[in-house]
Amino acid sequence: MNFTEEKLPREGDSVIVGMSGGIDSTLTALILKQKGCRVIGVTMSLWKGDLPELPGGQKLHSSCYGPDETEDIEECTKFCEEQHIEYHVIDVKNQYQQQVLDYFKAEYRAGRTPNPCIRCNSFIKFGALLDGVQKQGIEYDYFCTGHYAKIVRPDEGLWNTGVRPAMIADSLDRTKNQTYFLYRVPSATLEKVRFPLAGIEKKDVFRMAREAKLKAAERTESQDFIPPEYFDMLFADRESVPGKIIDLDGHVLGTHKGIEHYTVGQRRGLGVSANRPLYVHSIDAENNLVILADNEDLNSSALIASDFVWPGNVVPDTAFDAMVKIRFASRPVQAHIERYTPGEGEKFNGEPYKITFAEKERAVAPGQSVVLYRDGVIAGGGIIGRALP
Questions:
Q1: Angle 23-34/202-211 helices, nearest 10 degrees?
Q2: Which of 29, 62, 144, 328 would suit a FRET pair with 19, their CA atoms being 20 to 30 Å apart?
Q3: Contact 224, 165 (CB under 8 A)
Q4: What is the per-residue pLDDT across 299-352, written as a single tens digit (0 to 9) for each?
Q5: Radius of gyration of the chain (CA)
């Protein structure tokens, strides 16, 4: 299928720019300002100050959620003042708590591996933030962020329909491609979304930022979600329940400190001694077990996923092939996608699909997302329910 890239904002357009204080969003705002757009900077306020300071005066790395949010807002404020850009801070703390933090903890405690960045994009950055902008009476033509992705539209209707929705496609710089994190943003929202860095490589972003003498060019890139130093503190609202660590044959190898501290594929920090490397194969939340296995036992031929989102809400009318990613850092692999008939006792959130890989995939983690690509464009995606050996 052929796709046409949607036009970026032009001179005179009113553009909201989601700003974090980082190099990508700051340069995005500057580029649009220099094009003659009316730029309005907005920043999400997430931090509730509900976690204590780190012991020993440890310095946090920059992250989406943390006390350094105040510094980020100060930098954004200063930049916008210098560039004569209107600037607003939108309070989305309660929505972030409910949709991201509570979800994150609940998923780990259920033995699944969550992806808070995907959740944040769909519910907060491209949801609650824009709702807050609307409530403040701010009108705009486009919402832009510094993501490495682009918006395209199919030249023909999807799946034998006349629907031609806005869709997400790979950016020029494939090494920084962030489409995986954006797959759940609805097509209706994408109609007014643009990514001005879509056709710029990261090395050129740094060069342009340095030439413009942007302070953001001096910053290290932020971590995703929450620093590891705060992980245990985030789960301190409930006492962890220790349980058995076993192998695939049921032999007890040790004791775990609570299933929320483990994820599929993990090797380090298991607290067991063995004469060979062992990895987390799976987590049995119902029986409070962490199951370990050899590396080769983590390979899967297929997975079952549900809770799918499809561009334009157009559901595929037949089985199809696509390139798929089972985590952000994984390389895409060829796979066959078909509807799955649930067995007795199986429950899913919406229509389940079976995704069969052309080659083995390692450490397929329930709770993570599987994202489908056709011709470099996201064709849909869902939440992994279980892996098939």
A1: 70
A2: 328
A3: no
A4: 999 999 999 999 999 999 999 999 999 999 899 999 999 999 999 999 999 999
A5: 22
